[in-house]
Amino acid sequence: MKTFMKAILLAAMLLATVSAIEAQVSIGIRIGPPPPPRMVGVLPARPGAEFVWVEGYWYPVGMHYNWHEGYWTRPPYVGALWVAPHHDGRQFFAGYWAGGRGRIEQNHRSDRGHDRGFRDHGRGHGRK
User: Fold this and answer.
1) Domain spans of the chain?
2) DSSP per position, the chain
3) Cα dist. 90→24, 66, 101 in Å?
4) Of the residues 22, 54, 77, 80, which has the fewest C-beta atoms closer than 10 A?
5) Is the pTM of this model over 0.85?
6) Would you state the pLDDT for residue 126?
């Protein structure tokens, strides 16, 4: 009888261990939707034919949103289209470039100093 009880106890412990190993744990922080977009009065002059305007947008940083001013930029490759960031009511989706050569994620933190974006009439890059 003791051997049978030990076998049952061992089987239960193994089952509990396997269940714990297969369990999935997900921890996330949701900060809700961003504020409404800021309105642009007058669009700056287009610096050249190859430039496209990227509307300003909010992006999450920690537990709040930062505003990224709209700016003129060269797409990463010919035919790439800008897919604006958006919030679907539950989750934020970052903006990206899409086209025949694949998807390129937008990295607004690296816009500066890469000679791609133009803001206003001078050579200023989009700011946070």
Assistant:
1) 31-128
2) -HHHHHHHHHHHHHHHHHHHHH----------PPPPPPPPSSPPPPS-TT-EEE--EEEEETTEEEEE--EEE--SSTT-EEE--EE-SS-EE--EEESTT--EE--GGG-TTTT-EEBTTTTB----
3) 21, 18, 30
4) 22
5) no
6) 37
